[in-house]
Amino acid sequence: ENLVQRGSHHFVIGSHCLLKRGGIFMKTVFMFSGQGAQYAGMGKDLYDNYAVAKEVFDRADEVLGYSIKDICFSDEEKLGLTEFTQPAILTMSIAAMKVMQENGINADMTAGLSLGEYSALVASGAMKFEEAVALVQKRGKFMAEAVPNGKGGMFAIIGLDTELVEKSCEEAVKEIGGVAVPANYNAPGQIVIGGDAATVEKAAEIAKEKGAKMAVKLKVSGPFHTSLLQPAADKLLPELEKMNIGKMEIPVYTNVTAETLKNESEIVPTLAKQVVSPVRWEHIIKNMYDAGADTFIELGPGKTLCGFVKRTVKGVVNVNVEDTASLEKALKKIRE
pTM here? Predict the structure, then answer.
């Protein structure tokens, strides 16, 4: 094992790591996109150019009983429906991971934003891809059904301290009742709030009064990661309990606590809780960095998570992989 010094900290680097920069071993993170990152055409380049990626899409089609690749590549309407969005993103993310691994890049730790946590569990070896892709389709369906359309809402609050965002939610609840809570702690100065439509709108107004630069209403089908999603969590738990959970080969940082899952028995209850708990992404990034991570690789559509990393920690390699062009760019940067 090797020790790395960063500032006054020392980190023990595990045996997974094969990469080296300036004579120093480093720790690599695979991080996986969440819902909202999807776009028509995603994954097509990987499918056309890499046999390992093609195999992932083909396996997903077999498991699901319909063509997820057709939805990813060209069906924008279906791609926007939560029950299709979730298996589509997971499939594309794992395809990107397989291409990365084929190029000799492996992770020392992993995490995913909301839905992305399922991809992270596949990456760790705790979940089989085939089981995960079928499960997240059900998860998407349960989440979409939990709150009738228009009853809930979510806003991204930009440029306001965490404490003031939390206060804005509390004040809105006090004033008009209902639910308004932080749902995603994405990065410093970027928090998503969710809850009952009127209450969360009020909280967004209050946040603006308190000095938020922006309060942007999100186009989502429900107030994810709030107590209003409890019906989805209740339906999801029995499905999770049917999963064949394997051994985690690398640490998985979970949205619920921002810490690593201590053992496999925590996976099922944590994933059920995740649906109704805030996503602590900013804290996950900080905890991974403190554990020695200095290479963050976002696998899946878009580069939203790279943006959050950039706002949260400095001096790290921060790349995304979603097609051949981004793959080549990422490999170049990692191997510099």
Answer: 0.91
